[in-house]
Amino acid sequence: WCALSYVWGGDQPVKTTKETLAAHYDGIPFDALPKTIQDAVRVCRGLAIPYLWIDALCIIQGDEQDLRRELGKMPEIYQHATVTISAAWSTKADDGFLYRRGYWYQFCPPIKLQEKEKRAKTTMEGYAYEKRVWESDPINSRAWTYQEYALSQRVLLYRSTLLEWSCRTVSDSYGLLEPSTLAGKADHHYQPDLQLDPDPEPFFALSSSHQSWSDIVMEYSSRHLSFASDKLRALSAIAQVYHRETGKEYLAGLWREDLPLALCWFAMPQTSYNSTTNASENDNLDSEPSPEKILQKRPTGNRGPSWSWASID
User: Fold this and answer.
1) Is 118 inside any structural domain?
2) How would residue 28 be classed by pLDDT, with cut points 50, 70 and 90?
3) Are residues 87 and 209 located together in one domain of the fold?
4) 84 and 18 belong to one structural domain
5) Total domains present in the chain
6) What is d(CA 204, CA 245) in angstroms, rounded to the nearest whole number?
7) Does the reported pTM lie above 0.85?
8) Is 307 found in the same domain as 158?
9) In angstroms, how far apart are the furthest CA atoms of the chain?
10) Which of 91, 112, 140, 173 is least buried, going by the fewest C-beta atoms within 10 A?
11) Residues 92 and 222 in one domain
12) 50 and 165 co-located in one domain
C-alpha cells in the first residue's frame, strides 16, 4: 500500500464518520474526492499499488476510541508502506499536486545541450536550481506530517519545483545541480563504513541515528498544529518507535532515564522589529529596525505537565 502525507487545510469535505462508514464500505465516487486525494489515487494506479491509506478516510473522524486505536498503528502504517506519497506543495486537500512544475531560477537560466550521435542529434535542456526554494513547502510547517516523513522508509515528495525521491540512503531529484545526493534522511542514517544489513528491519530506526531526542523535539515543536491539544498526540508514533528501540519510559514528551537533564529546555521568545529610531543620533546611519524579544503567555488548556516542553508553544 501507499500512505498519503498531506496538509488538510481545514475540515475535509469527504471523511469517514460513523454516519458515512457504511456508505464508504460500498464505495466513494472518485469525483467527490478532493484533488490531492484524487492525485494520490492516480499515483497509486500508475505504480500498480492497489491500496492507499488516507487518514481522513481510514480513521473514523470524531470517534475517540477509533482514533486511539489507529494512532497506535501509525508506526506500522508508515514504516511498512511501500512508499509514502507526500503532497509537499499543497496548502489544502483541494489543491492537488500533479501539475507541470516548469523550472525556477534567478541567476542561472536553463541551458540547452546538444549531443551529436551517428545519425541523429539530440537536444536536452538542463535546469539548475540556485536556491532550495522547496524548503518552505507547506508540508514542512505542519506538525502531524513530521512523523509521517520520519517514519517512512521511502517517500515521493511532490515539491513546488521538483519531484524528490527519499529513502534511507539516497535523496535524488530532477532539477538539482547534483543528480544524486546523500541528503535529508540519509544525513542521519547512512553510514558507508558499516556493512549494511541485506534484510533490514522494516522500520525507520530513530535511536540508531545521530539524531537525538532533543533534535526531534526542536524540529517538531517549530511546526504548527490546528488543535493545540494534539501537541503530544501528533508525535506519539515516533515516541512509540523510540521506546521500542531504547526501552526508555516516556513521560509527556520526555524520557525518565534522561532526567534531570531533560528538564533543562527553554522556549525561544518571538522576535519583532521596532523601526523607531532617533533621527538626531542617526542622521548619517541607515535606519534599520531593531529586534525586540516578545515573551508569550502560557497557553490555556492542559496539554501536559508544566515541566514538559509540550505544555507551551
Assistant:
1) no
2) very high
3) no
4) yes
5) 2
6) 11
7) no
8) no
9) 76
10) 112
11) no
12) yes
Residues 6+ away with beta carbon under 8 Å from 74? 147, 151, 236, 237, 240
Q: Are 309 and 251 in contact (CB under 8 A)?
A: no
Task: Report d(CA 261, CA 4) in Å as an integer.
Answer: 37
Helices marked H in 125-231: 144-151, 185-189, 213-221
Return all residues near 259 (Cβ < 8 A) that are at least 6 apart.
Answer: 251
Query: Per the structure block, which three cell numbers stand in for 134?
Result: 522547496
Do 245 and 169 belong together in one domain? no
| Residues spanned by the domain of 170 | 1-97+138-177
Instruction: Quote the cell numbers at residue 65.
Output: 476510541
Does any domain span residue 77? yes
Asked, as a colleague might, if the bond just before 13 is cis with ω within 30 of 0, I would say no
Same domain, 151 and 233: no
Cα–Cα distance measured from residue 251 to residue 247, given in angstroms and rounded to the nearest whole number = 13
pLDDT tens across 249-288, in order?
A: 999 999 999 999 999 998 877 766 554 444 444 444 445 5
Please indicate, yes or no, if residue 183 is contained in any of the structural domains.
Answer: no
Computed over every residue of the chain, the mean pLDDT equals 77
Q: Is residue 59 part of a domain?
A: yes
- From the list 262, 293, 8, the residue with the least C-alpha distance to 139 is 8
CA distance 64 to 30: 27
- In angstroms, the CA 72 to CA 53 distance is 15
CB 305 within 8 A of CB 252: yes
Three-state DSSP class for residue 40: helix
